[in-house]
Amino acid sequence: MLTKRLAEEIVEQTMLRLSWNLNVMDTNGMILASGEMERVDRIHEGAAHVAKTGKSIWISEESLEEWPGSKPGVNLPVHYKSQLVGVIGITGTEEELRDVAPLVQLTTEMMVHQSLLTAETEWKRTARELVFKELVSGHPVSGATLDRMNVLSISLKGPFTIVIVHQSETTRIPNRLADWLAEALGIRSVLPGADHGHVIPFLIWGVDREIVKKRVEHAYKRKGVSILKVGIGKTVSVEEDIVLAYESALHAIEFSVKHEVISDFEAIAMRALVGAYQQPLHEHYVEKLLGNLNEQLMETLRTYFDCDQHVQNTSNELGIHRHTLSYRLKRITELTGLDPTRFSSAVQLQYAMLLKAGARI
To answer: From what superkingdom does this record's organism come (predicted)?
Structure first.
């Protein structure tokens, strides 16, 4: 639909180059803008007929009585993407306007197309940002957001990863970083959040985590934008946990190693968790590491750490053979991906156990 502001701009710009009066009407025949101000906000019956039939009409002095609110001239439909969005009327005789009318119609449609396309692009950008904001809020998705997702053809399917990009202020590309990075990543299922000056988050879905990491590294090496820091959050499998993916991406930035541009939360999880102490993230961390361990294995792990990883003392405390203890420790490694006999793995497992027990660090 034509807006009054756009109609006024069309009249102003066209009449700078046209020696005849121009009217711009909506699809009801209402005059939105005119070189003759007294005609604005009145019904133009000729324009209403054009809007109804989609066909141009010429109005002469002899046929004026048939078209109340009209003057001699031509009324032409204005289309946008094959849809009639308004009508333009040029005052004059058919002899005067026969050659110029099609050019005015074409110029008007070009102006309408540019304006509506810009408005449509802006709406889509805003809609994407609103969808992203709600998905990372942790609240249930509203009906309005589901409608926006439908219009934007967004169909979410796990896994989900959040990537946050910090761009250099000196080389910042306003409103273009999202498009540039989405193209650089080579991933179609990307939803950008709001661009806060030089920081922009992205939700990526349906793509394996390792592929996301490789594409981020590829995008960082490309020329065109200077990237200061990239935070890659944890990958989650269900839509309800996207908020955790977002929070972990923020922590990946906040607790990143100083001289590393790409900060992966999975690589600095301990560092971030110790600094953050956020209950939802802790619960997710504990579940990931300890969720598959039964009570016997948990007790074995607790005793093993209480005995400072001393095999014989742990066996004596549990009343089991050393070989049985070795089997249990090997089983813990298989279920958690962490070997409790190795220092780095033991730290992560013990920290998870402390969190599970409710200890504050």
So the answer is: Bacteria
Q: How far apart are CA 161 and CA 204, in angstroms?
A: 5
Same-domain check for residues 230 and 297: no
Q: How many CA atoms lie within 13 A of 355 on its CB side?
A: 25
Sign of the dihedral defined by the CA atoms of residues 245, 249, 251, 255, in that order = positive
Tokens of 75: 């009324």
Q: Residues 104, 171: one domain? A: no
Label residues 324-356 b or e (16+ Cβ within 10 Å = b): ebeebbebbbeebebbbeeeebbebbebbbebb
The CATH number of the domain holding residue 105 is: 3.30.450.40
Residues 6+ positions from 162 with CB-CB distance below 8 Å: 136, 201, 202, 203, 204, 232, 233, 242, 245, 246, 248, 249
Strand-by-strand arrangement of the 73-80 sheet? 31-34, 22-25, 83-91, 73-80, 57-59
- 178 inside domain: yes
Q: How far apart are CA 173 and CA 165, in angstroms?
A: 13
Instruction: Describe the strand order of the beta sheet including 160-167 as a list of residue ranges.
Output: 190-192, 199-205, 160-167, 227-232, 262-264
- Identity (one letter) of the amino acid at 305? F
Domain extent, residue 36, equals: 4-120
pLDDT, tens digit (0-9, with 9 covering 90-100), for 216-247: 888 777 755 677 889 999 999 999 999 999 99
Other CB atoms closer than 10 Å to residue 277's CB: what's the count? Answer: 11
Number of domains in the chain: 3
User: Is there a domain that residue 167 lies in?
Assistant: yes
Q: Give the end of a domain, one of 225, 247, 274.
A: 274
**Same domain for 306 and 253?**
no
| pLDDT given for residue 176 in this prediction | 60
Tell me: do 270 and 295 sit in the same domain: no
One-letter amino acid at 37 equals M
